[in-house]
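Thread: quick sanity check before group meeting

JM: Hey all, I'm pulling together slides for Thursday and realized we never actually wrote out the predicted structure for the chain we discussed last week. Dropping the sequence here so it's in one place. If anyone has concerns about the input, flag it before I start.
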Amino acid sequence: MNLNKLKIWSVTDGSQGMISQVNGLSRHISSNIIEIKTDVIFPWSKLQPGLLPTYNWIFKNNISNKQPDILISCGRKSVYFSLYCKKKFNNLINIHIQNPKISSRSFNYVISPNHDNFYGNNVINSVGALHQFEKSNIAPKPNLLTCIVGGNNQHYNFSSNEAEKLCKKLIEIKKFNTDIELNVITSRRTSDLLKKNLIKNLSNIAKIWNGVGENPYKQAIQVSSFFIVTSDSTSMISEVAISGKPVYIYHLPFKRKSRRIINFQNEFSNLGISRNINNIQKLEKWTYKPLNESERIARIIKEKLMQDLK
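JM (edit): ok, ran it. Output follows.
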């Protein structure tokens, strides 16, 4: 059976991190992919899946009658879409990425990171988050350090004071590593206030991308020799680990501690992928096997699909 011809619906709420995860897995299975952005009306939009039944009219997007072979979803709102389509279409294989917060029996397969502590007979666990980036054959620049900056979320408050501390740390790193070239890349969650702070304090020692023009993120993953990533994003830390290059985590203070984030950080540290930058001045070089969980998980899924679709 040629799995590359299977029709896949890649379903998310449109957020970039979730798109990266579903596309990262989908592209290793088939080239026939349709991306779908879904949303649901109130009260489904506020409630965890499983509390209310699903109907066609709860979705803000239309659902085609042309059945896919596989539906791959990621995120809470896409759980509703997957459950409805599983009911609507015969023989649909549905795969969900991340902890769906309902029984895994509602899906053919669930891909859940180790740090979520979600297990089951049809659950495949990953190291960190899946993503759509690939290992590059481009030779990295030997002294290029890229700092990737996140922003506020439910667990971290990236305040002006914390921005000042980050800038001071980067200035310190540049002082003790005079041969490095420093790039700073902001993300969608980086506030305008934080961007202004970075530009004010670092413009004389770093190239700063503040969200204007072409995003250099993909290229930075390919050519950097070192990374510093703020601790608020497990996705960005997972993505840069495709490089096999040193990943330093800049730890922000928790506003609400998360056991799953602590588990994630400990796992990456224990695997030799990441280290804490907060108390370090001199950068060190180390290597590890580039982390490509999308490819590894896809191989497992394809083996199972060959059995399911016989």
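AS: nice. The CA atoms of residues 34 and 83 lie 18 Å apart. The chain has a mean pLDDT of 95.
JM: adding both to the slides.
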